[in-house]
Design goal:
Blueprint: H1 18-23, H2 26-33, H3 39-55, H4 60-76, H5 82-96, H6 101-133
Helix pairs in contact: 2-3, 2-6, 3-4, 5-6
């Protein structure tokens, strides 16, 4: 399991797909759509995901993507609706368990869509929490 954090390990059924590549940008699009104060961070997440999933599969970008995605998940979990987190986790698991290239393309795209919905849902809750901490 930890090997994926030290060396590229692309999914055996994964491939360079325009659909998957485009879906990488949904994180930044969701953050922009809801006015997330973390928009810059989500642009970085999207760019690294795009590099790992589309531009340079099986490269050091894949390792960096795992670190960036893990950090993003840790940051968003406290303010994300639990039901949406479950949907995103199920989509990520489906991507990992894909048995064919077609399944991987669909599941990995759905993982990006579900995670982007979590980003959009968490942003207003994060702003509200930050307002309470400042005493507003």
């Amino acid at each position: 399991m930890l090997r994926g954090y030290t060396e590229p390990m692309p999914h055996p059924c994964g491939t360079q797909s325009v659909i998957v590549g485009a879906s990488c940008w949904l994180f930044a699009a969701a953050a922009a759509a809801v006015g997330s104060p973390w928009l810059g961070a989500w642009v970085v997440v999207s760019a690294v995901s795009f590099a790992a999933d589309y531009v340079a599969r099986d490269s050091w970008w894949a390792v960096l993507d795992r670190y960036v995605a893990t950090a993003a998940a840790v940051a968003v979990v406290p303010t994300a609706p639990p039901a949406l987190l479950c949907v995103a986790a199920a989509a990520a698991a489906a991507s990992r368990l894909s048995a064919s290239t077609r399944q991987w393309i669909v599941a990995h795209t759905l993982w990006h869509v579900a995670a982007a919905v979590v980003v959009a849902a968490a942003a207003p809750r994060r702003r509200a929490l930050a307002g309470r901490r400042r005493g507003r």
